[in-house]
Amino acid sequence: MNENLQIRTFKKTGHIEVICGSMFSGKTEELIRRIRRAEIAKQRVKVFKPKIDNRYSEFEIVSHNEQSYPSVVVEDASEIPEKSFDVEVIGIDEAQFFDNNLIEICQNLADSGRRVIVAGLDQDYRALPLNRCRSFIGC
Fold first, then answer.
1. What is the pTM of this model?
2. Per-residue b/e over 24-48, b at no fewer than 16 CB within 10 Å?
3. Among 17, 23, 63, 102, which is 20 to 30 Å from 131 by CA?
């Protein structure tokens, strides 16, 4: 055996990607695009949406141009970690509807080596900032 052989191990690092913007700006469409790209790369994915968002479909996220993707409906963001233990990429749509612990949950998921993609509004209908999405990007 070669004594000069070094075995290196690399820690799998995760990260958070934020898709934010106004209504009808293509946030869900972009989330679906990124999720589908992850699937093409043979990564295990799961998408979550809040129970309150049942406008177009009960069990899918749906963009305004009618693209859709199956999703898991959760009442609270704290359900996401236990329902995503077997995936590498986690998508979260309509972030503004989740409770305040969403940011910490996403950070913990990223710290465990996951890619977390979060989509949500950055302002309300009056153009006032929504702090949850803005907190992800440090505003």
1. 0.85
2. eebbbbbbbebbeebeeeeeebbbb
3. 63
